[in-house]
Write a sequence for this structure.
């Protein structure tokens, strides 16, 4: 067949591509012309795109190593994005009312297309985000990346960590099942124990119907108002605040520059490479692996959903979400106002104080350098270890009545009640607390920091054995008590006396005092645990008139 | 290396999302409506057949708005779907295709009642396990394990009820259940409860003795977390409320609920259960054999389960005969009247059927057995007996002073048993007393 007119020649793909890219529409949307893969093009690619310009156009090579950051900060943000997307999808089906919320969960599970998968993704991503944000913080500490000029960004980071926990915690209630109701009950009961502001805390000034728990719950117990409040907090308020702070966090990373080993003037120019593609591809791959992991996991494991929430049926045990079971475990040894309010506040304050307590601004930046900053590393890892050990005990070893149950033990076995406890009289308690802090403050200063580790450890060991033996002879303590006394005493000797003597005692007064107070408080938690385990002492200092118990 | 991860990562991610979508699109329930459509179409021709074959495969649900329930059971049980099976009748004999047996749906329209209000289970579920299917016997359980990977629905405390326990659901609305066909087991359960003296210690909606729990308000609605299954010997998947109740009639209650008589775990000694041990013949007259058969245990369980709470609108209730009152009854004799009172207030719970055999009472002075009335009544004068009935024995003597308080005691009946009833009861009690030798 012959056409009555001549067809125009078929254009080649390259020509079409050029035509599209040169068209007014394309050029109006994307800055820059045809891609030629020149350094200028690569830089332009980053600079010309509002999202990619979150990164600088060139980055130092050492930052690209997997083992430097493990991509933890980026993954935290990526998980936040997954949570935003899946969360918005879930919001289409979810109604925050007590008689509907649980039913909507069942609808997601059984009727909604991909509902079960998306809910599982949201749930598991949330757990992953809490974990990865914590790991990110640990990494930033270990590589000294909080040091000047990044102190402020470290503080923003600590606030973001708290917001992440809040996001997860407020979301925990929304399925309105037994797990949710009782975890949130455990968590918010801590608020009622706040000093002064909580109805059940020491120096309480407010009643049950106007204290902080009431504000949080919109009632005296978890109910319909709480669900609505937590919904608004979870879906609107906390994400907005967290988002705003994330912008500040990322902007400060750009402005303070990405952390790395300090460069001496003679080593200039930098060993920088183009962000596109070197950094971008790594970020993409990290996000990709994360998404594979989360979706694979969500395919295998459904999000948990227990019976519908019932305020009259308390599960035994009722556990807080896993990241709070460490604090819940401390409830065994402390009153709620310490375990739930004072200690978390101290942890936050302590974390924020780290960059200012660190006297050296250059040592160990950009590397995992244990030898260069032994004191900082020791105490930080000590705290992290305590935090996760307590979480492990609270999550895996506690059963009915919060008794210890090994993982292979059936929860149907009845356990004997804990032994009877007693408290010290007030004068003795005051003296003990006073001695702990005053002597604890002075001890590291008593001798010079130039001692030998080996001989000091040996001397301590012998001294501890002597004390234990003496206690056995004079006070007839049991063998298990000897063991507790020895273990906790030796821990105190090493971390409360030797390490501060070696590394902290040379610092200026303000730093020394602040750091020592924090160290003594952290060790104090452990010492109280030891005193309870070994000697069944409930309170060291108790003033029942004002609910003040330590 | 990075390039490889990049390429393969994308492929794996795409595959995972595809798996998610495929798994979501082809759900296990779909084969049942499809098969039903096929079976139904095979019997028809022409237009009808076409219309059957074009019926969409979708989740079907009954919105029982009055009951506040949504039941998706008919998604698979298409024989009971008024749209797929307008007459609610078909020739199929196998579940899930067969239509509802009996004529229950005629008087209980499926659009109004749904399914779970009678059958139990989880109406919103669209998979076999989640629906809370319960096997009727071990053979079916094994079959389901193979076929559906069956286990009890997790975190769902009210699985489906099998026969005869299903009859408990009739009693929820029908106060006239004793005259209904198909509710024979529940009727038998109620009768057994009256004659075996449960109400001497337990209550039923507040009426009854003060010694133990309210069977209707508490036992029937007990959440699983409050049940201590430690001594039941039940496997994890058998730990249900139904089995818990039923075991009380089949096992020694001391074994089921041993308390802590030596104060090993508690600060004070706690006596084991005070309930009658129905697993052995009454110790007072063992020649009579077991008081309750396995069938009786089922009947009692069924009747107790009928008190499970359900939000049923008032209009659904069917009135029944009133509980008979003593004053309105006609008796052959005073003794008959007294016997009726003896049964009504559950005296047999502690003193045995016809007062012939005292039940065990842990750490009770004199061998741990409640008094056998036929043996002891003869020692009382009428005023003495009246006083004992009226004021009871609140504090009973212990065999071992350091042991736990015996669980059973004689309650004060003066506010529960009316004076007229009391007189009749005493007539009856003296009539059963064994004649004492004259000194």
């Amino acid at each position: 067949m012959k056409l009555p007119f001549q067809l125009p020649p078929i254009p080649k793909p390259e020509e079409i591509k050029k035509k599209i890219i040169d068209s007014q529409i394309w050029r109006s949307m994307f800055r820059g012309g045809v891609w030629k893969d020149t350094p200028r093009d690569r830089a332009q690619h980053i600079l010309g795109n509002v999202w990619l310009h979150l990164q600088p156009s060139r980055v130092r090579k050492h930052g690209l190593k997997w083992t430097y950051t493990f991509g933890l900060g980026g993954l935290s943000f990526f998980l936040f994005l997954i949570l935003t997307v899946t969360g918005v999808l879930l919001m289409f089906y979810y109604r925050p009312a007590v008689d509907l919320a649980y039913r909507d969960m069942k609808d997601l599970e059984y009727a909604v297309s991909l509902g079960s998968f998306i809910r599982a993704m949201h749930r598991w991503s949330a757990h992953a985000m809490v974990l990865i944000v914590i790991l990110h913080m640990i990494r930033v500490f270990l590589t000294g990346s909080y040091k000047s000029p990044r102190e402020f960004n470290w503080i923003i980071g600590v606030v973001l960590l708290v917001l992440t926990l809040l996001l997860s915690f407020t979301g925990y209630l929304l399925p309105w099942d037994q797990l949710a109701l009782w975890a949130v009950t455990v968590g918010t009961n801590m608020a009622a124990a706040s000093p002064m502001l909580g109805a059940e805390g020491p120096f309480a000034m407010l009643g049950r119907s106007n204290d902080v728990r009431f504000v949080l719950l919109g009632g005296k117990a978890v109910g319909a108002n709480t669900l609505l409040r937590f919904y608004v907090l979870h879906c609107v308020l906390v994400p907005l605040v967290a988002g705003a702070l994330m912008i500040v966090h990322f902007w400060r990373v750009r402005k303070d520059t990405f952390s790395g080993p300090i460069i001496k003037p003679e080593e200039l120019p930098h060993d920088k490479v183009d962000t596109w593609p070197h950094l971008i591809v790594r970020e993409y791959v990290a996000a990709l692996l994360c998404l594979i992991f989360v979706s694979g996991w969500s395919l295998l494991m459904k999000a948990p959903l227990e019976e519908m929430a019932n305020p009259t049926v308390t599960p035994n045990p009722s556990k807080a979400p896993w990241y709070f079971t460490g604090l819940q475990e401390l409830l065994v040894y402390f009153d709620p106002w310490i375990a739930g309010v004072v200690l978390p506040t101290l942890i936050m304050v302590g974390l924020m104080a780290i960059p200012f307590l660190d006297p050296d601004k250059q040592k160990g930046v950009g590397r995992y350098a244990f030898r260069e900053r032994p004191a900082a590393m020791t105490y930080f890892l000590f705290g992290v270890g305590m935090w996760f050990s307590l979480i492990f005990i609270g999550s895996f070893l506690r059963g009915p009545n919060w008794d210890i149950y090994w993982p292979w033990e059936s929860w149907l076995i009845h356990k004997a009640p804990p032994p009877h406890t007693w408290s010290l009289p007030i004068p003795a308690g005051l003296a003990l607390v006073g001695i702990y802090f005053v002597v604890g403050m002075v001890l590291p200063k008593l001798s010079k920091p130039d001692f030998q580790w080996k001989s000091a450890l040996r001397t301590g060991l012998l001294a501890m054995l002597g004390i234990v033996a003496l206690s056995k002879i004079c006070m007839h303590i049991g063998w298990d008590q000897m063991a507790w006394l020895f273990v906790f005493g030796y821990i105190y000797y090493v971390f409360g006396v030797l390490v501060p003597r070696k590394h902290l005692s040379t610092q200026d007064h303000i730093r020394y005092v602040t750091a020592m107070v924090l160290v003594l408080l952290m060790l104090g938690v452990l010492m109280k645990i030891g005193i309870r385990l070994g000697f069944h002492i409930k309170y060291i200092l108790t003033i029942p008139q004002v609910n003040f118990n330590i | 290396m990075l390039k490889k991860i990049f390429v393969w990562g994308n492929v794996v991610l795409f595959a995972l999302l595809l798996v998610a979508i495929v798994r979501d699109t082809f759900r296990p329930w779909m084969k049942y409506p499809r098969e039903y459509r096929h079976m139904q179409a095979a019997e028809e021709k022409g237009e009808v057949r076409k219309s059957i074959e074009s019926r969409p495969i979708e989740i079907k649900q009954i919105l029982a708005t009055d009951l506040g329930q949504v039941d998706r059971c008919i998604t698979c049980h298409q024989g009971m779907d008024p749209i797929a099976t307008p007459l609610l009748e078909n020739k199929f004999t196998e579940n899930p295709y067969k239509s509802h047996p009996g004529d229950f749906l005629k008087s209980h329209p499926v659009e109004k009642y749904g399914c779970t209000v009678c059958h139990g289970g989880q109406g919103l579920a669209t998979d076999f396990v989640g629906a809370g299917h319960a096997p009727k016997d071990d053979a079916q359980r094994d079959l389901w394990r193979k076929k559906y990977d069956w286990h009890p629905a997790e975190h769902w405390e009210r699985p489906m009820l099998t026969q005869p326990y299903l009859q408990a659901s009739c009693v929820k609305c029908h106060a006239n259940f004793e005259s209904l066909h198909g509710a024979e087991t529940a009727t038998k359960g109620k009768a057994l409860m009256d004659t075996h003296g449960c109400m001497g210690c337990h209550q039923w909606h507040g009426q009854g003795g003060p010694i133990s729990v309210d069977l209707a308000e508490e036992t029937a609605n007990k959440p699983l977390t409050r049940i201590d299954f430690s001594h039941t010997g039940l496997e994890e998947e058998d730990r249900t409320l139904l089995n818990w109740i039923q075991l009380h009639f089949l096992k020694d209650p001391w074994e089921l609920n041993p308390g802590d008589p030596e104060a090993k775990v508690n600060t004070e000694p706690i006596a084991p259960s005070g309930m009658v041990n129905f697993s052995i013949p009454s110790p007072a007259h063992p020649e009579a054999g077991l008081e309750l058969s396995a069938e009786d245990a089922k009947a009692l369980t069924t009747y107790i389960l009928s008190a499970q709470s359900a939000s049923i609108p008032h209009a659904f209730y069917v009135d029944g005969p009133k509980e008979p009152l003593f004053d309105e009854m006609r008796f052959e004799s005073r003794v008959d009247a007294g016997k009726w009172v003896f049964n009504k207030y559950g005296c047999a719970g502690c003193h045995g059927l016809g007062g012939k055999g005292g039940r065990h009472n842990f750490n009770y002075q004199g061998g741990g057995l409640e008094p056998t009335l036929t043996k002891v009544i003869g020692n009382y004068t009428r005023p003495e007996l009246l006083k004992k009935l009226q004021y009871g024995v609140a504090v009973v003597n212990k065999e071992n002073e350091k042991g736990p308080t015996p669980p059973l005691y004689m309650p004060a009946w003066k506010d529960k048993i009316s004076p007229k009833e009391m007189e009749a009861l005493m007539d009856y009690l003296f009539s059963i007393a064994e004649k004492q030798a004259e000194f």
Summary: Chain B has a mean pLDDT of 92. Chain B touches chain A at residues 2, 5-6, 9-10, 12-13, 16-17, 19-21, 23-24, 59, 70, 72, 122, 124-127, 130, 155-157, 223, 225-226, 228-230, 264-267 (CB under 8 Å). The first strand of chain B starts at residue 62 and ends at 64. The radius of gyration of chain B is 28 Å.
